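Following the same procedure, the fold was encoded as tokens, giving this record:
***
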Amino acid sequence: MEVVRVHIHAPVVSFRHPFFVVGRQPTSLMPPPSTIHGLCAAALGAWPVPGEFCFGVHFTFASRGNDLEHQHITSPMGAKTRTMVQTSDGPRQATTEINVQPTSRDFLFDTHLTLYIPPRVGEAFRHPRFTMTLGRSQDRAEILSVERVELEKGNRVRLDHTLLPMAVRPCVRFGIPVLLSRHIAEPPERDAKFAQYICLHEPVFLGDGVDSTRAFIRHATIPLDDLWCDTSITDDEGFCRGVWIHRLVEDER
């Protein structure tokens, strides 16, 4: 499988959980598929077709912390509380009020994101159309490299710092089940679809001579068609980096 490997660095990111609106804002430990889709759209200058778009991901961070930031909460004013304010165009009636609310937000620092994406989308990262941000608009990102690589099927595979589909839960003892936004439709509807994944940062190995406590357990009923290898990246024991290829819309494969 020919893909483009894109290596991106961002000093600080925060992948907000969509179901937390106020109060503490935790971060996901892996960029959601919808964030990856949006990042590729920014590079391409248009939305990649969801049914044709696929990706593999490898994501690391140096540390995790939290800090206070201000949220600006807007709400409509009641008719009895509206007041006149002076603007550059003259006096106007205020209809909206804004309250500043300190909020604790989690952050990931010194992050490195490697994407394995189709060539047409990946080549756009050589000259991205829009500013590269990883998640929020203020989390600027830097493209470190863009390379064409061939993914292969391998016998000795190492999976870590990646997303796996929930279907392989019987195969993997490690990793955290997470609910992530899978695809967000274009404006104005912006309908969001969610899916369950396994956020795997611990290493899991597939192949002969693997420690049973860290083995990827084979199940005859669970296909491994989407598991590939980046043979140009190996660890000290000769295990190649495993790349699981995900799709935004499974029904359109």
The first strand starts at residue 2 and ends at 13. The helical segments are 33-44, 119-122. The mean pLDDT is 89. The domain at 2-67+102-252 is CATH 3.30.70.3120 (Alpha-Beta Plaits).
